[in-house]
Structure formats: C-alpha cells, structure tokens
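Inputs:
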Amino acid sequence: MSDGRTHRDTPFRNPGWAGNTGEFDLTEAQVRGDDYVATRPLDGGHASGAPTYPYLLAEKDPSAPLFEGPYRVRFDKILTRYPDRQGALLPVLNLAQELRGHISPETMDEVAGMLGLADAYVRGVATFYTMYNKRPVGRYLIQVCTNISCNLCGGDEVLAAFLEHAGVELGGTSDDGLFTVTEVECLAACGFPTAVQINSRYYENVIPVGVPDLLDRLRRGVQ
Amino acid sequence: MDAPKPQAVTLTIDEREVTVPKGTTILRAAESIGIEIPRYCYHPGLSSPAQCRICLVEVVGAPKLAASCVTEAMEGQQVRTQSEPALEMRRGVLEFYLANHPLDCPICDQSGECKLQDYVHAEGREHGRSREPKRVFGRDDFGGDVLFYGDRCVMCTRCVRFMNEMAQDPRLAVVERGNRSIIDTFFDEGVEGSPYSGNIVDICPVGALVSKDFLHKARAWDLEHTPSVCPNCSQGCNIEIHTRDNLVQRLKPRDNPEVNQYWMCDYGRARYEWLNRGDRIEAPLIRTGERDARAAASWEEAIRAAAAELGGAEGPVRAVASAFVSNEALVALATLVEALGGGEIVFRSPRTVGEIPLPGFEKLARREDLAPNREGAEALGMKRVGTNDATGGLESLAAHAGKLVVLGDELEDAGPEFGAEAAAYLYLGSYPTEGAGRAKVVLPITTFAEEEGSFTNHARIVQRYEPALQAPGMARPAATVLEALRAALGTPAGALAGRRGS
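Outputs:
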C-alpha cells in the first residue's frame, strides 16, 4: 500500500449475521422464475435428474411405481448418457429418491433389477452417499452443518434449536410428518455459517433465535 | 502365433539383485527371494486394489512410497522394504488399524493366525497412543458357516472380491462410507447357500470372518497341520487336516495351482465328523462259534486265521472294495485276489447329480463322484455297482458261495445275512457294520486320515496324503494288512507286475 500501511493495519470487521435479507419471503418461482419451476422436473430436459425439489415433496410416495410416464423418459435419457449401466446408477437412484422420498431396500432391489446390477453392489453405492435417505423422511429434510466453520459460529446451538422446536430426536421425524432433522458433515457454505439445507434449499447465517420463525414458515408452506 | 516370451527385468530389493519376468509386481518379486512385505488386501488368487496400504515400500527416486502389490517391478529399480520412511509409514498404517480394533486377541478365533497380530509384533509401535474410546460395530451372522466381527475388520475387501471374482456371486458389499464403512450382505440375504463361501473365512487376514463350526473350539497354535487330500469328492482338493487331541478340528485348503488353487468347497470342508467317530473296530476279531460270538485276537493270530480260511476254502474269489481307500490298499487287494486265482472286484461309491463349479477357477468343482478314489479303483479294473447313494448292487455277492473279501465298504444296506453262504468271508473295515456279521475274520483298518497313501482324482492326478491322526487300537493300514495276508498265504509278491506295467 502506497501510504505506508500494510494489509495488516486494515481493521478486520466480522460481518456477523447479515440479518434477514428477505429471501425467506420469496417463493421458488420468484427466485428461479416460473418457467424454470414449472418445466424443469418433468419434461426430461434437465440433465442431472437432480433430487428433492421442494414443490414435489408433497407428492412423494414410498410405494410410487418406479419410472413411469415422464419419469420413464428421464430414466431412458439417463441411460443414454453412460457407457454402461453401472455409471447410470447414481442418477437413477436420485430419480428413485425424487419419486419415493427415500431409498428403501426394496427400491435398491428394484433399481438393481432395472440396471442389471448385483443387489449388494447397489446397496454398497446407495449407502456410501449420505444424500440418499435410507429411511423415510418428513416433508422437510433439515440438514444442519456442524463442521468447523458452522460449529465455530454456533452450529451445535442451531441444531439443538431445530431439534427442540421441531420436537424430534436427531435423525428422527416429527409426529406430524413434517420435519426430519439431521446433522451433515459439510454443506460447502463456510462463508455464511451456520448453513442449513432444507430439502434442496440452502439457508445461511442461521442463528438459534431465528429457528422457530423458520419452522413456522415451513409449516405454513412458505419456503 | 506364439505368445511373446516374457522379458525379464532385474532390480534390487534390499540390496539383493533379483530377476523376474516383466509385469511382476514388486511384492511378488520380493517374495521370490524370501522377503515378505506385509499385506492385507493382496491375495495371489484375487485382484489387487491397493486398498490396505500396508505393503508400502520405498523405491529410490520415486516421489513417494509405492504400494508394492500393484507396482510393477522395473529394470534397475532399487527397492527398500526396510528403510526408515517405509517402516515409519507402515507403523502409521498399523496404528491406524488399531485405532478402533478391539484387541480381543485372547478370545479371537484368529489369534495365532492373525496378520494384524504378526505385523504389529514385527514392525508396529510398542504402545498404543490412542486415549479415545474405541467404536463398536458389533457382529453379524452372514449365514451359512460364517460370522462377521465388524470391529476386527480392516476393510481389505478380500471377501468381497472373492465373492465377486471367484464365486461370481456378489452377495457381499462394502456399505456406508468413510469411518462407518463395513462389510455387509444385501439385507437378509447372506452367503447362505453359496457353495464356496467358506473360503472367505480362510482368506480373511484378521479375525473378522470366522467359522461358526470352529468358533471357540481350539486355538490355532494348538492345532497340528497335516497335508492331505479332501476325501469328499473326486476333485481331490489339497487340504490341511487340522487336528488336536487326536480329533479332526477343521479342514483347510492347501495351495495347488493345478487342482484347487487356493480354494475348496463348503461341502468338502464340512464333512470331517466321520473321521472322529468313536465306534471303531479296534482289534482283529475271529468268529468263534455262531454269529456275533467273536473273540479279539492278536494280529498274528488273525492273519493266520484269515490265511487259513482263504487258503482252505474252495470256489472262486470275489471282492468288494471301496472308493474311499487308498491306491495302495486297492493294489494290495487286487494282488491278493489275483494270487487267489483272480476274480471280479466291485466297488460302490456315492454320486450326485451335477457338478458345482467354482466359476472363477474352472478346474475346481464339487464333482459328481463323492468318493475320492473312484478313478483309482477303475484304473485297476474294478467295476462300479450300486445306485447313486452307494447302496445296492451286491445282490449277486450276498449269496456268493466261494471266497469273499470286503475292503472298506461299510455294507450298510447289505443285511446280516451278507456272506452267509461264503466258503470264506474276510472283512476289512474301520467301523462295525451289520454286513460283517457273517465274516469269519474281521480286520480293523485305518481311515485315510490315519495312514499314508494316495488317491487318484478325476483327472487321474495321483496325490499323496499323510497320517494326521493316531489309529485307534490295533487298526492298521489296509495295504499293510493285505500284504501281510498275502505273505501268509505264501503267494508271490508282484502278481500284478505284468498288469501294473501296462
């Protein structure tokens, strides 16, 4: 620096909690646009077969038939992208989870049958990735990061607040079937701790006092 | 076109020069000159994933340590297996393995055969530094004969690879990830019913997979190992008989790349209890009066009585052999029958429908013939009779009026009147049986586990076995007994000489 100051002299200001930026009041459509929300999942146009769209959660059914209608189109499309069926396993499991909400042993079995893979192999893969729910989850899957950055900024307290106000045990689902609260290793949102992922949506700078309000919004169906 | 000849590479391992074919891994090259590099995941019969990281060695000039089980030996390479960086790294790996290992050596079935124990003893740290409580995974029943102790597992995945590559029946998988990883079956479907699953217990380098049958039965260091041949089918897998207190405790496969590589089937592995049976014929018996009135005799008396019986009787000689006795005994029987004037020898042997092959090593199968020496008996011109469960077929012999010799066959279904019409009836066997009731002389012989001998397998490979147990009482190998009898009859040795040469 030309005036003789070094970067060390620049006073450090902790940004702290940025406050409610208003984003909680926006709908998915407002954030991403109507076209995106309306067309993305079902027309087979999206590449990844990405999981857990919040607006689809209500329709999830553990016994939904796998890959019929538009889902068949997406399933076939996934298969075209990989040289062998083994490669298609992850996106197909994603698609199955999108339909059923979780990957049960029966689902693994069915997917193995559809892809011609060994049951045990599918199980090994499905259990490796924590993003696959091995048990049924509530309408909102709340994943609280308690890794280092979030932890230093009170991740444990945020987690405790979610458990308390949603009335669940860690990993459990509330009686009304709305909330499942889990702890995750890292959400890769270290810039704005504490980070919480609710379904596919990230919530950053979460503090314990904000938790009841957040849960109320979710109860009212406002994301 | 001929396959290209393997080129040789010469490298130095621990200051010793060794020349190996191109493509050999450092681990194999070291092994060829007697340097053992620690390994868990590497098994010569399976693929190498370089997963366990214990076989790290220093290659001079390489930026970091190399996993010797997958690193190809190169020309002029200098490898140090005992250098400070290599030892340090291996110490670290061992410490890592022990972080959650329960160290339940005093009760672990693998104690004495555990590679973790061996390597920690050889090059691990003297004292553990971990102060945290260990995590507990618990145990799982994999079905069949296999139990899984999750805490002892070092995730070498040998068992998973065996089921995938050799059994080609992928029922095991690594589930969960990172520090929660564990070997599991696909929910309630275990390895039950998989015909070669017992091998995963053999190849587990630690005590994670144990045999229910052997669990807490004996300590590994108390067992005596005797090289032998599996008697449960005509494949003739090379095995070790593990004995203690003169009882067979378990059967383990022994390497033979031509016959069974490193494996054996569960069927053969499970069938050893008959060798431990206590109801043996322990002394030569001579019938004194009517049936069931028998007196124990010395071998000398018994041989004399048998020789007098056979020598004095009239009529043609016929014999029943068993496909469970050695080649030596069969030859001795054939010689004796020849010396007595010659006659038909028949044998019975159990047979199943269909073979059970090991897909990954096609030379190995549980063969249709469930007797170890059918091929040997047939090579001597003996004829197989009876049904597939080794019964029947002896009707014409039951009332045979000439001389009758039975060797080894238990005559279970023959009935008490078997041999009632015979002019001379001699029975050589291991176990008391109803069919021997009319025999004038009963001679106790050893089982294959109590004698030295050989079996001829389905591919006509003759394989020798050694005595693993002490014979009960006065039982002697059948070959010895038959030779003594032939000598007592005064017939010349080598009556079969012309035939054997053919």
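Remarks. The first strand of chain A starts at residue 140 and ends at 145. Confidence is low (pLDDT under 50) at residues 36-58 of chain A.
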